[in-house]
Design goal:
By secondary structure, the protein is an alpha/beta fold. The protein has three domains: 9-119 and 185-270, 4-Layer Sandwich (Metallo-beta-lactamase, Chain A); 127-175; 284-336, no CATH class. Helix content is 35%, strand content 22%. Strands 1-2-3-4-5-6-7-8-9 form a nine-stranded mixed sheet. It has a five-stranded mixed sheet with strand order 10-11-12-13-14, with no helix packed on it. A hairpin with a 4-residue loop joins β5 (51-55) and β6 (60-63). It starts with 8 loop residues before the first strand and ends with a helix. Residues 1-19 have low confidence and may be disordered.
């Protein structure tokens, strides 16, 4: 691994599982989880995905490209501050915009790997996907709200709001550049890459967050990057297969790993969190199904479903996301 020296800020910081090497750049926090493998997180206060950077003997593999080409270019620049090895491969964990709409910034020389389902979604009409449409509208509404607050604020408050307003305006503008690029290499169940001394496995373990979630597994390091199919708590379910998700998590738990790098949030080692989420999904599906059988609409079920017994997952209020419940009703009516 070729390291670029003299331009890094190397910090030793405490994390949930001990000391870790953290490199900060102008735009990113890069946490070295195991030697040569980094969790990359943008430091901008905007919704975005995690990325995984795997520095091999002679090249670099990246998982997930962030939310816009702008954020992807910042990620690429940050990678240049830890190694001069060329980026040869990008993996999309799934098709959602916050993980894949930076693809175009990596250029034609970088191969993009994804599941067949991800290719189908991204080669179709990804800018019409409800996730993207809702995210774009939410960005624009947030900018409008900030502008209204800014205009009504006094001079002192305006100084505080200016940076936030400029950041949001630039982010809205960055979305206009998005031209989705689909994977040019697809997989169905499993793919193994050998890069120098490193074995990199890509697994499709079943439908979960989407119909084509890919998990990266480094067997020598006992590390998985799970995208959004396995977080420290429940994921967003609006495109999900909640009825199948517990079995997919069981397939994940069959792998020999100790470290989970999720698509959002922090690195964690407590595998029992995944088992808690398995039970949550089973209970949510059965309870929503019972409310449907009683004749409740999806909107009514979203208000009434009670998951507050899942206190270890921080569930404290009755009800669940109506988009997710509507998706479950759709699955119950039209199973595939």
């Amino acid at each position: 691994m070729k390291l670029v020296s003299g331009i890094l800020t190397l910090l030793i910081t405490g994390t949930a599982f001990g000391d870790a090497h953290v490199i900060t750049t102008d735009t990113h926090r890069l946490e070295e989880v195991v030697p040569g493998v980094y969790l990359a997180q943008s430091t901008a206060r905007l919704f975005n995905s995690n990325a995984l950077v795997v520095v091999n003997d002679d090249d670099v593999l990246v998982v997930d490209s962030h939310i816009t080409p702008t954020k992807a270019r910042e990620l690429i620049s940050s990678i240049r501050e830890i190694t001069d090895n060329p980026i040869t491969t990008l993996v999309n964990s799934h098709f959602h915009y916050d993980h894949s709409h930076g693809n175009q910034a990596f250029g034609e020389g970088v191969h993009i790997i994804g599941h067949e389902f991800t290719r189908m979604k991204m080669a179709g009409d990804p800018l019409s996907e409800h996730t993207f449409v809702r995210g774009k509208a939410g960005n624009e509404e947030r900018l409008k709200q900030l502008q209204q607050v800014y205009e009504k604020a006094d001079e002192a408050r305006r100084q505080e709001l200016k940076a936030q307003l400029d950041l949001q305006a630039a982010h809205v503008d960055a979305w206009r550049e998005i031209a989705p690029v689909a994977p040019d290499i697809t997989m169905s169940q499993r793919m193994t890459l050998f890069r120098g001394s490193r074995e990199i496995q890509l697994h499709f373990l079943g439908r979960a967050h989407t119909g084509g979630d890919v998990v990266l597994y480094l067997p020598a390091d006992k590390l998985v990057f799970t995208g959004d199919m396995a977080l420290e708590g429940p994921s967003w379910l609006g495109d999900g297969y909640v009825d199948e998700w517990p079995e997919t998590l069981a397939n994940l738990l069959a792998l020999d790993f100790e470290i989970v790098v999720p698509g959002h949030g922090r690195v964690f080692r407590d595998r029992s969190r995944l088992s808690l989420v398995q039970v949550f999904y089973r209970d949510l599906w059965s309870r929503v199904a019972a409310l449907r059988a009683q004749g409740l609409s999806a909107e009514e079920a979203a208000t009434e479903v009670d998951m507050t017994d899942h206190v270890k997952l921080g569930i404290s209020a009755v009800g669940h996301d109506p988009i997710s419940v509507a998706r479950m009703y759709e699955r119950m009516s039209n199973p595939d």
